[in-house]
Specification:
With 267 residues, the chain is α+β, with helices and mostly antiparallel strands. 43% of the residues lie in helices and 17% in strands. Strand 2 (15-24) and strand 3 form a beta hairpin. Helix 2 runs parallel beside helix 4. The radius of gyration is 22 Å and the shape is globular. The termini are far apart.
Length: 267
């Protein structure tokens, strides 16, 4: 079996969702039979949402991907579907939402941002957001109603689980467990790795090396126009490192030894 993504909504490497359609090419005639598609979601923006909001977000985005998929005129269908079905379910959910208004607004901003990643529904997304903001009594151009790019996250590359030895890239947050066996990562190991990652970021801040916007690979020559690993664009290492240093300062409030390390660097 081989997999392909005929539809993809992509914000960044930590926030994307796609239809993953498999093709079975194992028969004798090598004729590929398409298997019923599903949806793969990797949306770290939802980590800060309440469980109810997470469930609704996944429902709406899943429908946005799947419903138009087998339509002949997908462009027209998705516009109508967002305007009628998505908007109807979103407004009904917000109208009965009992939690804090700030939670509803956070959910709305994330939801509309993801919907607008579908190029054929960007205009409809604006209308849906306007109507939703009226429902929760927030002005359309209020500061809190505007989309804000999420804070740069700290990622520990190739983190190995101490129980099952599964290796993955770990986004540092409050609750960090192995994606394979759900075993928590020891705090002391995380702190050791954070200090190594921070030292690398600090060094990049002091030099003028160009780094990849996607994978942070340092450019090893003066000729390449894009990253040879992921084809990402080069950017100033100092500029990107300064942004990341702010993220380490936030983490230092939760990791005492990292806080001690940062104080030695900045004081």
């Amino acid at each position: 079996k081989s997999a392909c993504w005929p539809t993809l909504l992509y914000l960044d490497e930590f926030n994307w969702c796609a239809i993953d359609e498999e093709e079975d090419d194992s028969d004798d005639n090598k004729k590929r039979a398409k298997i019923e598609p599903g949806v793969t979601m990797n949306i770290q923006l939802q980590d800060d949402l309440t469980p109810d909001c997470q469930d609704m977000l996944q429902l709406l985005i899943g429908e946005l991907l799947l419903r138009p998929f087998k339509q002949e005129d997908q462009d027209s269908f998705v516009k109508k579907y967002v305007k009628e079905q998505i908007q109807g379910k979103l407004l009904k959910f917000l109208g009965s939402y009992q939690e804090a208004e700030k939670d509803a607004l956070k959910f709305l901003n994330v939801c509309i941002k993801l919907i607008s990643l579908e190029k054929n529904s960007q205009h409809e997304a604006v209308i849906v957001k306007r109507n939703a903001l009226k429902l929760i009594n927030v002005a359309e151009f209020a500061e809190e109603a505007q989309w804000r790019k999420p804070q740069n996250r700290v990622v520990i590359k190739n983190m190995s689980c101490t129980k099952c030895w599964f290796v993955s890239d770990l986004v540092v947050k409050n609750d960090m467990k192995c994606a394979n066996c759900d075993h928590p990562y020891p705090d002391e190991i995380i702190e050791d790795r954070l200090q190594i990652e921070f030292s690398s970021a600090f060094k990049r801040c002091l030099n003028s090396d160009l780094v990849c916007q996607k994978c942070n690979q340092v450019r090893a020559d003066n000729m390449s126009q894009s990253c040879p690993i992921c084809s990402g664009k080069w950017t100033s290492g100092a500029a990107s490192a300064r942004i990341q240093l702010d993220s380490y300062k936030e983490l230092a409030r939760h990791f005492s030894y990292l806080d001690f390390t940062l104080n030695n660097y900045f004081n």
